[in-house]
Amino acid sequence: MPRAFGDKTSDKVFLLRYGSSSEKSYIEKTLSSFSGLLLKANFFESSREALTALLMQYQSATPHGFYVIDPMTHVYALDPTLKDKYSIRAWHVVDQSRASEALASSYPSRSPESLASTMIRGATSASARRRGKVEVCTVKEPFVSLARASLPDKWLPKVGLQPINTHDLEDEEAVNQLVQRTVAYQLQAAQSTLMAERYSILASGALEPRWVLSPYFCIGNDQGLDDMKRIWQSAAWREVDGSRAAVVLMIRSQYMVRNVPRIVEAVAGSSAHTVFFWIPGFVEHKEPEVSVHSLVTLVRSLSAAGKRVINLYGGGLSMSLLASGLDGLSNGPGYGMDRAELPVRGGAVQARYYIPSLGRRVGVLEAIDLLEKHGLLKSREIYLNRVCDCPICQGAVAPGVDNLGVFFGETVRNKSGTGSHASGEALKRCNYHFLLSRLEQFDRVRTMSVSDVLQVLKESIDTWADDGPHLGTWHDALI
Amino acid sequence: MVSETNKRVSESVIVDVLQKHIVESGIPNVWREFQVAERSADLAWVNGCTGELCAAEAKVADVTRAFRQAERYLLFADRVYVALLRNSTNGVARQLSQASGIGLILVSVVASDVAGARVEIVVEACASVRKLAALSRMAHVQWCSEYA
Fold first, then answer.
1. What range does the domain containing B140 cover?
2. If you compute the radius of gyration of chain A from its CA atoms, what whole number of angstroms results?
3. Number of neighbouring beta carbons within 10 Å of residue A241
4. DSSP letters spanning B62-108
5. What residues contact residue A272 under an 8 Å CB cut-off, 6+ apart?
6. Average pLDDT of the segment spanning A179-201
7. What local confidence, expressed as pLDDT, does residue B111 receive?
8. In Å, how far from its chain's centre is CA A167?
9. Cβ-proximal residues to A39 (8 Å cutoff; 6+ apart), any chain
10. C or N: which end of chain B has fewer Cβ atoms within 10 Å?
């Protein structure tokens, strides 16, 4: 008899990442099937009450469910002068009379006059200009409050004005303060809304996260790794219960490829039992052989060193790695099988269909092309048996297998009438199919042996031939 | 060959030339950037005699990619073409065309002189054997929303 989703008999975990309020309906409908929820700290800052309510509801409905907060400290090391969508800063329209006040509130260490020439500009819209408005460049509010809650005092004057460099960690006091505040933030984020006396009965530790994540910055060289070691070996970090502490290893691929033993040694020295890792921009199906082999070695070595290893952004390879030392991964409904260092935001969202056995999300027409070319659209039965039988797909092929492209690829005209884009329904169908088929894969793979996984990969290689060259790379790396 | 004269020709010039050629051959309605399931064929038109929906992909370089993209249009169109500049790489294009049933159109053009350009259908497109009924219906509905 097939096991239900969410069966907690295995130690492997599959986290659902919740990154923005636009994902709310996906989260509410699928969360109970995942092992736990992963929340970004800046999102917590902007939606604290709603998220606390969601967590209370989740924990009462799913007793084994848990959550984790990603402290997002790395964003303060990004260059704040980058474009709005990549930066913790943004331009806002305000009354001219309030511009100085806005600057003072965002950058308390500097006088508004000293910033006015670069941080205030005329409004871009003519109607705003007519109404006496200007644009002011301020730090986005969730990042201001998150910085105040989790960064050391001496770093705060730099927030939004310059990148916080890991060299700033030289000061032991700053390291300890960073760790203490980041840890305290995660422990109290959800509880803090329940502090009013009338809610105190609800706040007795029930809403604490499963793991407490270390502060983290991107490691691109030996110095960066040494800086992170200072965090992991600090007095404040050693005070966190090891079974609950999780170090976050955010590491550039080029550095990882050349330094796996050094990285493993550094992480092994930490008291934390768990490691969350993120390799920015690591697209598992596009990576060269050497990077894939390094990732597999890293995961196996960390696991052999006694650590639980969880990928913050896992794709098809990570699913296969569950049999080879990986203890968990995380996905979100939209983008989410990989993530670049700079945040990606804005622009029209394209509907992308996830092909489970290929381990890739591709455009809908490309997906249909691939499925048809490899004989997987010959009948409903073939599709449901060999591609996906999630409830969304069952609905898609109910009228006939050739309905798939229309179901997932439905478009609507742009407002300008010059083109078209994915309809809201098509996006929903693609995203639900992604989450449900990933859950099905996780449920199947988590109890498999390495040889079972290799056999499944071999079958996929036979199916996809030249259209899935990455499958051979994954297979060879996992042998 | 004509590669010297084709220098500095952009993809949009090939599309302009082909569109003009189709219109001059008696088909008044040609849709640029015809989108199905969020992918756009550079040109689409309906053959007045047969009622068939045709699609074309134009490329200056990367012949293999042009055919890979065009193969996807076979899922909704009756006939599909790849339009390229006439040059020394056309041998590969002929082979790909014959193997896939996708038609091959070669364009000779000097700089951006659309009026003086020459268009030749080198390999006629075969009727698509990959067409999926629902996608094809979707494409026809889209066409009719503009030109019915």
1. 4-147
2. 24
3. 10
4. -HHHHHHHHHHHTTT-SEEEEEEESSTTHHHHHHHHHHHT-EEEEEE
5. A214, A232, A237, A240, A242, A245, A246, A247, A307
6. 79
7. 73
8. 26
9. A18, A51, A67, A68, A69, A70
10. C
B118 touches chain A (CB under 8 A): no
Question: Is B102 an 8 Å CB contact of chain A?
Answer: no
Residues A228-235: what's their mean pLDDT? 95
Cα–Cα distance list, A229 to A252, A265, B146 (Å): 16, 10, 63
**Share of residues in chain B with pLDDT > 70 (%):** 95
Beta strands in A87-132 (DSSP E): 89-95, 120-122
Position A319 pLDDT exceeds 80: yes
Task: Choose among A177, A202, A178: nearest CA to A192.
Answer: A202
Nearest Cα residue to B77 out of B146, B17, B15, B142: B142
Q: Are A47 and A191 in contact (CB under 8 A)?
A: no
| Beta-sheet pairing, A274-278 with A245-250 | parallel
Rounded CA-CA distance B80/B71 in Å is: 8
Give the separation between CA A430 and CA A450, rounded to whole angstroms: 30
Query: Is residue B129 within 8 angstroms of chain A, CB to CB?
Result: no
Q: What's the whole-model pTM score? A: 0.90
Query: Could you say which of A372, A409, A421 has the minimum Cβ distance to residue B130?
Result: A372
Please say whether the beta carbons of B89 and B63 come within 8 A: yes
Q: In whole angstroms, what is the distance from residue A55 CA to residue A276 CA?
A: 21
ipTM of the modeled complex: 0.84
CA distance A365 to chain B (A): 6
Name the residue of chain B whose CA is nearest to A418's CA. Answer: B33
- Domain containing residue B19: CATH number: 3.40.1350
What DSSP character marks residue A334? S
How many domains are there within chain B?
1
